[in-house]
Amino acid sequence: MASEVNTDFLQNKKLDSIAADILKPVGITQGFIVWMGFLGIGLLACIYAYYIQFDNGLIVTGLRDYISWGMYIANFVFFVATSLVGMLISSVLGLIGFKWVKPIARIAEIIAVAFAAIAGLVIVSDMGRPERLPYVIMYGRIQSPIIWDVTVVTTYLVLSTLLYFLPLIPDLAISKGRIDHAPKLLQQTYEVLSVKWSHTSQQYKILLKAVRILLILIIPTAFAIHTVTSWLFAVTLRPGWDSSIFGPYFLTGAFVAGSAAVVILMYIIRVNYKLDKYLTSYHFDMMGKLLVLVSIVYLYFNINEYLVPGFKMKTAEAIHLKDLFVGEYAFMFWCVQLMGLVIPIILMLFKFFRKPLSLFVISIVVLVAAWFKRFIIVVPTQDHPFLPIQHVPKAWTLYQPTLVESAITLGTILLAVIIITVLVKFFPVIPIWEIAEEQNEADHKINE
Amino acid sequence: MSHNSKKTGEDEPGREQENTNSRRDFFKNFGLFGAVAAVGSAAIYSGYNYEESKPGHDMVKVLTSDNRIVEVPRDQIKDVKVDHDKLQKQGREGLKGHRFVMVIDLAKCRNARKCISACQGAHHLRPYEYHINTLVMQESEHTAPYFMPKPCQHCDNPPCVAVCPVDATFKRQDGIVLIDNERCIGCRFCIAACPYSARLFHWEEPLMAESDKGKPYNIELNIPQRKGTITKCLFSSDRLREGKLPYCVSACPNGVYYFGDENQDAVTNGTTKETFRLSELLRVNAGYQLMPELGTKPRVYYLPPKNRLFDFKEEKDPVQETT
C-alpha cells in the first residue's frame, strides 16, 4: 500500500467501469434468495438440534467422561485456524509489498471475520452450562489458557472487522450513487456506513495510517490466537498433546486451511460474479504457490510431530501413535496426511493444477482434510488415558458423534457461510478504489 | 504388610497409646458440627424451652446435635434453612491446621467395591459414575495383577485447578481439591488436564436431581449434583468436618484404607480403627504415589500389593453386566 494516495483516480474513466463490474452483483437476486432460503432452512434444523442439546444436556452427544472433547472442540480449532488467513494475506504479504494480494485481501478478511465470529459460538456449543458464559468474565482466572483464548479471539475479531471495514469506507462512498439496482435499505446502509467520506487526500492519509497500524497489530494477535488454542491441549500431560511444538504446528496448519478457504471463495466469486478480469488465473497461480509453500511448512511440522516420538516409542506415546499409524484411526490419519497434504503438494507443483478450476477442487479436498486433521488431533489422544478405562458402559470407551452433535457442527458451518454470503452479496468484494488507483498509476507510467 | 504395622505397635507400646490419644484429639479438634445440626438444634431448643411448661401437647422425641434425646411439641417443629453462603464460605476455606492424606494398602484389596457403593450412595451417583473406582492393574505380562482403588489424588500441584477458567475447582488449605458446581461452566478442561481420570461430568440430569431439588448446595458434599457440571471425589470433606472418616474409608471391610492428617503424622485404618504413624507406615511398607514423575504431588499414597491377603480373582464386570 502506497503511503501517499493520489486522488486523481477518482477522475479516471476506468473507475466507472471497475465500479460497474464489481457492483453489478450487489443486491438481492433470485439466486441469492434461493441460496439463503436453503441455508436458512438448514440452519433452523440445526438450531432445533441445539435446542435438544440445551434441554437434555450433553448426553445427546457421543461424548462421555473419557473422550470428553470431540467434534465441537475439533470444529473450534478448525474455525480459529481458518480465520488466521486474514492475517497472512493482508498483513504479511501486504506489508511485504506483494501487489497481487490487493484484490484478494478483502476476500481473506471476510473469511477471517466470519470464522473468528463463529469460533466463539462453536465453543459455547461445547459448554455444559452455556448460560454461565458471563462467568468467564465475572470470575475469570488469568492463569487458565481458556481466558487467554477468549481474550485473544475477541481481540482478533475486532481487529479483523476493522481491517475489513476501514478500507471499505471509500468504496461505500464511491458506490453509493452507483447501486440504483439495489434495494433502498441497502443504499441507505451505504450512506450511513460511508461516514460522509469525501475522498480528500487527508482522509486517505489517515485511513492508510490506521490500516497500517492494524496490519501490524494483527500479526501478533493472530499468532496468539492459534498458539493459545494449541495450548489448550499442550498444557495437559497427555501423550499426543504434551508437545512443545504445538504452537507453530497449529499455526502453520492454520495457513493451509485458510489459504484453501480463500481459493474456494475466490473461485465461487469469480464464476458467479463474472469477475475473471479481477481474479485472474495469475491470482490463482499465486495462491496455488502460496498453498504449496504453507503446506510444505506444515508437512515439515507434521514430520517433527510424529517422527520424533515415533522413533522413541515411549510406552504411552507408543499406544497413541500405533492407534494413529496402524490402529483404529489409521484410515483417517493417512487420508488426512496424503489427501490433505502430500498429494496436493505434489500436484500443485505443476502449473496445470494451479489453474482456477483444478486449484478450486484441490482446495476443497485440502479444507475438508483440514477439518478431519483437527479431529485427529483432538480425539484419539483421549482414547488412552494413563490409567485404564474400566467398569463403565461399553459405549463410553468409543467416541461416535451423534446426529444431534453433527447437526450442531453443521449449523456453525452454515452460519459462517451465511455471514460470508451476506458480506459478499451486499458489499463490494474487491476493493474498487485500490484497483482504480493501481490502474491509474499504471496509466501514468505508460504516459510518461 | 499388616504384620509389619503391628510389629511397630509391639515394639513401642507407648507409641501406640500416644497415637490413639492423638487420634482422639485429632478428631475432637475438628469435631465442629455441621451448620445444619447447629442451627437446627438451636431452633429446637428454643421451642423446647418455651413449650416445656405447657403440658398436653403432642410431643416428639428428637436427637440434638450433642447426642441428647429431648422432647418437643410437634407443632413447634420448624424447618431451618441452612445458610447457603456459610456453607460456601466454610467449604472454600477448609479445615484449618489440617493436611489430609489417604493411604491405600493394595495388599488387602479384594475388590469388595463397598467403598464405591458407599461413595455413590452418599453423593447420589449412578452405579457407573465413580468418585472412586477399583481398577484391575497389571504392570507387565509377567507380573501379577492386582486391584487398585483410585480416588481423586488431591494433588498438591493440581493440573485441574491450574486450567479452570472460573475458579470452580480449587485447592483448600487442608489439601483437599473441591469442585463448586454452582460456578462450573462445563468446559471440561479439567477432565482433559487430569492424568488420573478422576473427574466425571454430568452428561444428563443427575440420578437424584428431582429429590435433591431445593436443597441448599453443600459444596463439601457436592449435593445437589447438577447437570452440565463436573463432580469428583471430595475426600468426604463433609464427614471430616464432623470428625468422621470418609465414606469409602469407613465402608471398606478389608482394611484397605488409612486416612489421617499429615501435620499430625497419623493415619487411622477405616476398618480396624487402629492409628499408625504415617511416615513409619510409608517407610516400612515402601509406600509410593501414582505417577509422581508428572509432578502433580498426590496426597494419596499406595502400599504395594505384596504378600497379598487375597488371591486375584477377577469377577464379572458389575457395570457391563447391567448396562
Keywords:
A: 448 residues, mainly alpha, Formate dehydrogenase/DMSO reductase fold, B: 323 residues, Alpha-Beta Plaits, five-stranded mixed sheet, two-stranded antiparallel sheet, 12 helices, globular, disordered N terminus
Q: How are the secondary structure elements laid out?
A:
The complex is a heterodimer of chains A (448) and B (323).
Chain A: H1 13-23, H2 30-56, H3 71-83, H4 85-96, H5 102-125, H6 135-138, H7 145-165, H8 168-175, H9 184-193, H10 201-234, H11 246-272, H12 281-312, H13 315-325, H14 330-348, H15 356-378, H16 380-383, H17 403-426, H18 432-447
Helix pairs in contact in A: 1-18, 2-17, 3-5, 3-11, 3-15, 4-5, 4-10, 5-7, 5-11, 5-17, 7-10, 10-11, 11-12, 11-15, 12-14, 13-14, 14-15
Chain B: H1 2-11, H2 13-29, H3 35-51, E1 59-63, E2 69-73, H4 84-93, E3 100-105, H5 114-123, E4 133-137, E5 146-150, H6 159-163, E6 169-171, E7 177-179, H7 189-193, E8 199-201, H8 209-212, E9 230-232, H9 237-241, H10 247-251, E10 257-261, E11 266-269, E12 275-277, H11 278-284, E13 300-303, H12 318-322
Parallel strand pairs in B: 3-13
Antiparallel strand pairs in B: 1-2, 3-10, 4-5, 6-7, 8-9, 10-11, 11-12
Helix pairs in contact in B: 1-2
